[in-house]
Amino acid sequence: MAEELVFRFDVDGEDFTSAGQASVQVKKNLRQLGVDSEVIRRVSIAMYEGEINMVIHAGGGTALVKVYPDCIEIVLEDHGPGIKDIDLAMQEGYSTATDTIRSLGFGAGMGLPNMKKYTDSMDIESTVGVGTTITMRVNCQEVL
Amino acid sequence: MKISAIKELLDAEVLTCEEGLDKHVYSACGCDLMSDVLAFVKDQAVLLTGLVNPQVIRTAVMMDMVCVVFVRSKAPSEEMLELARDSGIVVMSTEKTLYTSCGLLFSNGLTGVR
Ligand SMILES: Nc1ncnc2c1ncn2[C@@H]1O[C@H](COP(=O)(O)OP(=O)(O)O)[C@@H](O)[C@H]1O
Ligand SMILES: [Mg+2]
Questions:
Q1: Closest ligand, as measured to the CA of A93
Q2: Pick the CATH number of A5-139 from 3.30.70.1270, 3.30.565.10, 3.90.780.10, 3.40.190.10
Q3: A119 touches A136 (CB < 8 A)
Q4: The domain at B3-107 falls in which architecture?
Q5: B105 to chain A, closest Cα gap in Å
Q6: Taking CB atoms and a 6 Å cutoff, what residues make up the pocket around ligand 1?
Q7: Is B14 helix (H, G, I), strand (E, B) or coil?
């Protein structure tokens, strides 16, 4: 496998208004690389939901986007409270978000299901009190 | 439907990317819940919303939407407008409510997402 290209972002957990900046940047970067627009869209939506989650549920974290010849991998890592029951969290409509978050347009419990829907694989590793790492992959045609 | 027709129907003020008024949209979504937009919307759509924060524009960017209409005269911040310009999104503001705006577009032939 050829050496992959990696983009790395710190996601600020203090500032909701900036949430999503990394995803916007990734979208630009992938477009510059000439990645297929449907693949870009799926990657950006999944990453955007994940980035918002890191901000509203975990106090921020880091996002890595790795461009491999045949797939794009997104790794979102935070040191937030962790997810106690992952199966429950994956259900459409399940949310622990506050009313404040709802009034901002998120917290409908559709984020994790959306992330799964738009990616070819998604793996959640989470330990309560330690943090959460979500790894998602979207397959694509050769870009590098 | 051309974006210019949306402007006319909603009697809206164009705030960014006037040069995009000739573009076409094929579906619309009236929604304050960004996760729903992220879940259901298809290509070349217009988003009508009463929610005003940068995530509205970023959501539109993620979905490759071409136009965002703020209803009930809601005023987006300069930061939001800058984000929209950066992605070539036409932003408009109308005095009409979300319900009325959606109804006008629908009854003039712009249907929703299945
Ligand atoms: N990074 C995270 N850290 C801790 N909890 C999380 C994280 N991501 C998701 N969760 C939990 O999973 C639930 C469901 O997430 P999601 O489907 O994105 O819905 P929403 O964000 O709208 O609440 C959240 O309400 C939260 O309890
Ligand atoms: Mg979420």
A1: 1
A2: 3.30.565.10
A3: yes
A4: 3-Layer(aba) Sandwich (3.40)
A5: 23
A6: A 53-54, 57-58, 78, 80-83, 89, 94-97, 106-113, 132; B 35
A7: strand
Which strand (E) or helix (H) includes residue B110? none
**pLDDT tops 90 at residue B114:** no
Which atom of ligand 1 is nearest the CA belonging to A82?
A: 4
Q: A23-54 b/e with 16+ CB inside 10 Å = b? A: bbebbeebeeeebeeebbbbbbbbbbbbbbbb
Ligand 1 atom having least distance to the Cα of A131:
3
Reported pTM: 0.94
Domain assignments of chain A as residue spans, ordered by start: 5-139
Residues of A in contact with B56 (CB under 8 A): 105
Q: For chain A, which ranges sit under pLDDT 50? A: none
Report whether pLDDT(B44) > 60. Answer: yes
> Could you identify the residue written with the tokens 């990616």?
A119
In chain B, what are the domain boundaries?
3-107
What ipTM was predicted for this assembly? 0.91
